[in-house]
Amino acid sequence: MIRGLIRGYWYPGMSGYHFYKKHYCKKLAKIEDMAFTEDPLDSRNFTGAYSTYDGYENPVVSIMNRMKYKQNIELSSATVAYLCYNAAKFENYDSFLWREIEFFLGKTISDMDTRTIYGCFYGLMRSNNCKLPLVESVIKDFTEKGLNKIDTYGCYELVEAISFNTREDYDAINYLHEKIMPRLDRNWKTARFLHIDSYCLKFMANLMTMDYYEKWIWDRLFTIIRKKKQIKEITSWEPYYKILLTLRKLGVEKNSNIELDETIKHFEDLWNNNVDFQWRYNLLEQRYYTVEELISRSIDTPKTLTWQEGEKYIKHNLPDWYWELELNLDLEVSDLYSEYQTAVKQKEIPDN
Length: 352
Hints:
The chain has 18 helices and 6 strands. A hairpin with a 4-residue loop joins strand 3 (281-282) and strand 4. The chain has helices at 2-8, 17-29, 59-69, 77-89, 95-108, 114-127, 132-146, 152-163, 172-186, 197-209, 215-226, 234-250, 252-255, 261-272, 275-280, 291-298, 320-325, 336-342, and strands at 51-52, 55-56, 281-282, 287-288, 318-319, 346-347. The chain has 352 residues and is mainly alpha-helical. The longest helix is centred in the C-terminal third of the chain and has 17 residues, at 234-250.
């Protein structure tokens, strides 16, 4: 019973859903008086999830719609920071929403604390919205209140935000270089999340977007990825290798004294030690093999062998979508191994 009630809190049609609807509407009706007990930028403070009683909706949209239909609404500084941060995070650039954010940000900026001014700074940097005087006020307050309080993940998020900044009336990258990166440098040992592929790849991509090639940051990132002694999936290996090759083409070795040889060799050694990588990726031409190339190579493979890393040969069962196309396919497929595994029907390759 308790389990059903808890699950019903989130799902329509179950016993607890009416309670959820009532609870949600009550919170939404008082958004301007919201007393935050946790992180004011966390979307769960408003709704607990992205579900609403009308279906599936982002909390920012729910609040925006509420503002449209309620007259004389007043928003707290925490609510403004929440909207600014999450609207930018989820790429909601609705003109009405940002007009309201700009208006209420001007009214509440003096009430902002460390965390809320951070949320506003992130939102303005990423969204490229609001007039320059207000942006400069937020930057000034963030520098005074929040800069010395942000952790390494906060630095990571601000790198992401500024990589989206295209304003010509303010040099956001220069601010990043002078203020944020030195703090990341001093606290680098706590940036353990960069050992996770998704974070590390995204961080490198954001730096490349800004043409930010300071030697110290790239050397530390390469130290992290060289610690990856085993990468099981080629879809995890290939993005790193592609970034390294791109950096070499951009000439960062000469222009920024960034050393690539050791890291590139490490990833090529991973390729040499993995049969599946060798089968699917053409290292000489630096690309995936096409489907037709895989087929031409697989025809001579004995069908009695299994697809196991470390064996001399690999058994290849082509997915049935290939046979329907009758060899008229020449696409680079990034996840063929998954296709092979998940195909419902497979056609055995006969011996020659």
